[in-house]
Amino acid sequence: MSSKIVPRWILAACLATGFLGGAAFFMTVGAATHSGANASAPEGPPVVSPEGKQLLTEFSTAFEAAAAKVNPSVVPIMSEQVTRVANPFGGTNDPLRNFFGDDFFRRFFGAPPGQEKQVVHALGSGVIVSKDGYILTNNHVVDGADKLTVVLQDKQKYTAKVIGRDPQSDVAVIKINASDLPVASLGNSDDARVGQWVIAIGNPFQLMHTVTAGIISAKGRSSVNLADYEDFIQTDASINPGNSGGALADLDGNVIGINTAIVSPNGAGGNVGIGFAIPINMAKSIMHQIVATGKVSRGFLGLLPQDIDEGLAKAMHLNGTKGCLVGDVNHDGPADKAGIKRGDVITKFNGTEVENSVQLRNLVAEAEPGSDANVRILRDGKERDIVVKLGERPKNLAANSTGEASEDKSSAEKFGLAVQELSASAEKSLGFHDEHGVLVSSVKPESPADEAGIQKNDLIKEVNRAPIRSVEDFRKAFEHVGKNDNVALLIRRGDNTFYVALQVTS
Length: 506
Prior knowledge:
Elements: H1 8-35, H2 50-70, E1 74-84, H3 95-100, H4 102-109, E2 117-128, E3 134-138, H5 139-142, E4 147-151, E5 157-166, E6 171-175, E7 185-186, E8 197-202, E9 210-221, E10 232-235, E11 247-249, E12 254-262, E13 275-279, H6 280-293, E14 299-300, E15 303-306, H7 310-315, E16 324-329, H8 334-338, E17 345-349, E18 352-353, H9 357-366, E19 372-379, E20 382-389, E21 391-392, H10 412-415, E22 417-421, H11 424-429, E23 438-443, H12 448-451, E24 459-463, E25 466-467, H13 471-477, E26 486-493, E27 496-503
Parallel strand pairs: 7-12
Antiparallel strand pairs: 1-2, 1-4, 2-3, 3-6, 4-5, 5-6, 8-9, 8-11, 9-10, 10-13, 11-12, 12-13, 14-21, 15-16, 16-17, 17-18, 17-19, 19-20, 22-23, 23-24, 24-25, 24-26, 26-27
Helix pairs in contact: 1-2
């Protein structure tokens, strides 16, 4: 049996029972094997059988071998940023400065009042990915730094330059002028499994080359507000400040993630067993683009994707909540040109089953701009395949706009909102152009409309796919809706349109 490969059943047993439980198990087996079924237990401490010792040794050796393989390729990244601080004594004409002189302030405060600069130091981690000095890390480790210093295991220090950054994924690539460096083995994060043992290596709290162990707690974590594009591996291996940019590796010593952040509910910044790593497949794709071009380009469909909740599924007569609802389509964008329409449900993208809007967004982003994407949609209960020529995602997308409107409580009793006709002045102030619908003038707190996320100044354009052009249309749309029924509303807010499910309560 190889010292680096441990049978899965051994790992499972140790995971389920713990190291002590595993040791006790092997002790019992050893006693039964050597003493016989009817023999009395030996006096004194139980003795672990040679077989049990060998298996436990191999399990421990797997961690040791993985750490030894990955550790040399994980480096500390020290950043320096020069910032300006408030001058407590005013400018050059300050009377205190004129009276005491610059030497006084230099002696007691480190600098005269006119010198308001302060150097801020921070520590992160990085993973060496090439022999000639390319290092993969987090964007937030290098963002804003005026100087970056990388320290190798032999204590050699190098000044690093930033090759490129991608704030949307929190990935960055830096480089040092060195050769024959220890390069990390990059694995396949798609093969990672929940419950799998992993090690995390980094430099927490200036404790260089710290190795911690745990398991993969979950995959595909998103909506944790750490980056625009999120598909995190969650782990309970201890990750602390200074680990950012370091390696999350499997027991074969392959890096499967770049440690990025922790959840710290008390704000103390310490580990509570919830850490996140960028999957190495995502990081590699971004890294290759940065090294090749210095920037990251992402595919663009030109539509607003939405998750499908139970209410929307019922209201739109869908069989389930899987897939991604098209809330809006950009005029003359890639999706519009290909024939994708508002209200379509995207079920596959380039052969991959689409579970939700976050997954679709990541799949589109990973696709090459200008390439043809095969998109399967569900429209009116029928599936069809559409080929879309992807565009390149714009750097900045339009923000929402707001405005004021007068109150009309004609429909407040049923669902907790009031609507009014869309006047010319309201249309202009809210930035709408040639739109139809009714304007939400108020929303009752804790009402069905409030729970659905509807807001004042939203424009309701459709009810159950039927266009709404007046308050009368809006009322008529609900005439045959029963109590507790779910109704799909198409909402425009600012420059975006999307669907919400509204449940009628009376």
